[in-house]
Amino acid sequence: MDVDCERVLFSAGQLHERVREVAGEVNRCYAGKRPLCVGILKGSVIFCSDFIRCLSVPAELDFMAVSSYGSGAVSSGKLKIKKDIDADVKGRDVIIIEDIIDSGFTLSNLKALFNERGASSVRIVTLLNKKSRREYDIQPDFNCFDIENEFVIGYGLDYNEKYRSLPYIGVLKSEVYKK
Ligand code: IMP
Ligand code: MG
User: Does the pLDDT at position 73 exceed 60?
Assistant: First the structure.
């Protein structure tokens, strides 16, 4: 375990098993369709790559980079599009793939954006859901795990760009961000 990790929440094995299960739900929902998966950089990249390999429907893959957080653990309250998708979403079934829903700010903005652009449907797949932190009226359509209000790292999730490559999800020691 990484020295800055207080405890492991989900092991690599637990993650793979649950990701496969949720991808199964998505396969059933999109049977006969060709959804456009939009991974939100960078946090969802590891989850996204495991998830789409479990899809049996012919999905397309695109990426978007946004930021609602600065470099720390506190939300800045402004969504910036740093990289937009290449695809035209008009008439498409869009699946947003996110690492974690916290306040819901990022996803409520993104969902509204894809709807404005004329997507025929927009659904959300998230790895983690911090329900108790919600400030915006948004729920995932597919969720792997509910978690408590703790700052987590690994499997793509970072703190100051560190820990993304950990193969598990762990709780970050509070002394790391209180420093
Ligand atoms: P929201 O817009 O408040 O829902 O924040 C979502 C974004 O905040 C996620 O995509 C993450 O980048 C970041 N975030 C929220 N909680 C955590 C955490 O516990 N660990 C790492 N990143 C987090
Ligand atoms: Mg993120």
Answer: no
Pocket mutation for ligand 1, best pick of 97, 99, 124 (most atoms within 8 Å of C-beta): 99
pLDDT digits (tens, 9 = 90+) for 43-71: 999 999 999 999 999 999 999 999 875 54
Distance (Å) from CA 72 to ligand 1 centroid: 10
Ligand closest to CA 102: 1
Task: Give just the sign of the alpha carbon dihedral 150, 37, 42, 24.
Answer: positive
Q: How many helices (H) and strands (E) does the chain have?
A: 4, 9
Distance 45 CA to ligand 2 centre (A): 9
Amino acid identity for residue 48 in this structure: C
The tokens of 126 are what?
A: 């998230």
Instruction: Report phi then psi at 5, rounded to 5.
Output: -95, 125
Rounded to 10 deg, the angle between the 12-29 and 45-52 helix axes is 60
